[in-house]
Every structure is written in structure tokens, then in C-alpha cells.
Amino acid sequence: MVPAARLEDAYRYCDDLVRDHDRDRWLADGLLSEQKRRHALAIHAFSYEAARIRETIHEAMPGEIRLQWWVDAIEGEARGDVAGHPVAAALIDTIRRFSLRRSGFVNLLEARRFDLYDDAMPTLNDFEGYAGETASVLFLEVAQVLCNGADPQAADAAGHAGVAYALTGLMRALPIHARRNQVYLPADLLKAAGMDPDDLRHGRKAEQLAGVLADLREHVAGHLDKALAALAAADPRTRPAFLPLAFVRPYLKALAKAQPYGPVAELANWRKPLILWRFGRRL
């Protein structure tokens, strides 16, 4: 067992980490009840830790080792003082308190192995599977926290929400990914537009890319609509777990005005609390 004072420090660390590196989710988590907020932040801090591994390595093997450390930590097989890692300590405490599926977090880590290499995402279906493992799971696990560990009946809503949220983030991060030789835009869509992954890596064929991105924005909007419709069948307590979706439509509008290769489409920070408030009233 982790001492209570140490666990409090771990949760505070997660709060700071998400605030500094995943501001949209941090703002959304801030609208949750005080008793549940820290656990949502632990889940989102873990997601950030997994996502940032690519940024901290120069070759794949150290990333593989780091991902395996996280797998072992979640499955209870890690060597050393796992509790000494604040995000791991807070996440494992959250998993235990709310009977969360460890397999969901392990699958997220397995999906993140794709990030370590420079392979292109083959198809849109492959990307939707990746989004399900890396983003949909976050909506679903936070929803279960809000239901005090009970089944939130929100798998369908989370599935669509994850694709909408992840694909929006992918389009925003495209200039950054291209500089790192990473290609998340599905190769089948690029091929249909007369492009290939190397065109993205070298910033070529911006006009064709703009068409691909326009189609993807429509695809995102469809998944967003399906996610919100599916919430009708979910436990009502789950709805605040889907507050991060507040930013999807505003980002789509910003992306429609942005150049394909950058700069990154942003929203003014002062607008974000208002966007959340308005979305929350309709959720």
C-alpha cells in the first residue's frame, strides 16, 4: 500500500502534469466532482505519459522498454518501486478503487507501439482501431469512475467519441508529426487523393492534402454526432466524462481555416471555459 500522504502527492502531480500538457482535458476534468476529478486526472496523466514516449527517444528500443515497464506496472509484475512513480501510483489506486479493466490500459500501451516507428497508418479502419485503443478507452474508464465502478453502458458512445477526439487531434498535430516522419493520416486516403506518405513527410501536394483533410473533418463530425446520440443509452452519470468533446467542433472550424502543413490550429485559451460551459449545458 502506498502511504496516504505519498498518494496525495501523486494525485497532485497528475493534476499538474495534465494542466501543463493536456490543457483541454484538464479543463474538462475541472468540471467533475471533487471526489472523481483526481481519478480522471490520473487516467489522463497516464495517457499523456504513454503518448510522450516517442518524444523522449531517438530509436525504438528504449521506447519498447518504457512501454513494457508500464505494462508490467499495470499488471502488477514490474520490478522495483512502482509506487515511486506518481502517475503509476495514482493510476493503480484508481484502477483498484473503481474496478477498472487493466486490459484497457494495457491495450492502450500496445497500440502506442505504433508511435515508436515511422510506418504509415495503412487504412482508415486501422486508424479507428488505434483511436479506440488510445482514446475511446479513456472516455470509457472515466465514465466507469463516474459510475462508482459500475458498468457505464457507454461503450458505443466512447467508441465514436474516441475516433472523433483522436482524429481531430491527429489533424491538428499533422505539422508536428510530419517533421518527425510520422504518418497517422491513413495511407489509403492519401493514395485515393494521388498522394503517398512521403509527400506528407516532405510537405508536398498541399492542395490534395487539403481535400483529404476536408473529408476527414466530415468523418469526425459524423462520429461526434453518433457519440452524442449514443449517450442516450448510457448511464446518465457518465455524461461529464464526455466533456472533452466540447472542443471537437471548434477545432474543426479552426482546421478548416488553417493551412494543411501548419501552423497548428489552436483555440484562444479565454474561449475554452465558455466552450465547455455551453457544451455542458447541452450534454
UniProtKB/TrEMBL annotation:
It holds the Pfam family SQS_PSY. This is Phytoene/squalene synthase family protein. GO terms for molecular function: transferase activity, transferring alkyl or aryl (other than methyl) groups. It comes from Pleomorphomonas carboxyditropha. The lineage of its organism: Bacteria, Pseudomonadati, Pseudomonadota, Alphaproteobacteria, Hyphomicrobiales. Signal peptide: none annotated. InterPro entries: Isoprenoid_synthase_dom_sf, Squ/phyt_synthse.
